[in-house]
Amino acid sequence: MKFIYPAVFRKNENGGYNAFFPDLECCEATGDTLDDAIDNANEAARNWIMVEFEEENPVFPYVSDISDIETEADDIVRNISVNIRFYEGWDE
């Protein structure tokens, strides 16, 4: 199953990047470089999704259109794709 959510990457005062997902509550990541932040955002989104799957009635938010996301001048918005592969007995 594939999930794609937009993430906003914002440069911080240390020269690294902070990332957040407008659609995934409290899902954030950081990285020393943009590539690191993207990798960490992918992991954060995957963890968020896996925790939601553990709920009795998982609810996945609708995906915002990138053009609808409020950003600041130097923000970078990227779609983050997370592939979840289920296997027999995954929920045991």
Topology:
Layout: E1 2-11, E2 17-20, E3 28-31, H1 34-53, E4 76-83
Antiparallel strand pairs: 1-2, 1-4, 2-3
Summarize the structure.
The protein is α+β, with helices and mostly antiparallel strands and 92 residues long. Helix content is 22%, strand content 28%.
The description of the largest β-sheet is: 4 strands, antiparallel
Q: What is the share of helical residues?
A: 10-25%
How many separate helices? 1
Q: Which overall shape is indicated by the principal axes computed on the Cα atoms?
A: globular
The helix-and-strand class reads alpha+beta
Structure commentary:
β1 and β2 form a beta hairpin. This protein has one domain: Double Stranded RNA Binding Domain. The chain contains 1 helix and 4 strands. By secondary structure, the protein is α+β, with helices and mostly antiparallel strands. The longest helix is centred in the middle third of the chain and has 20 residues, at 34-53. Helices cover 22% and strands 28% of the residues. The chain has a 4-stranded antiparallel β-sheet, with helices on one face. The radius of gyration is 14 Å and the shape is globular. The chain has one helix at 34-53; strands at residues 2-11, 17-20, 28-31, 76-83.
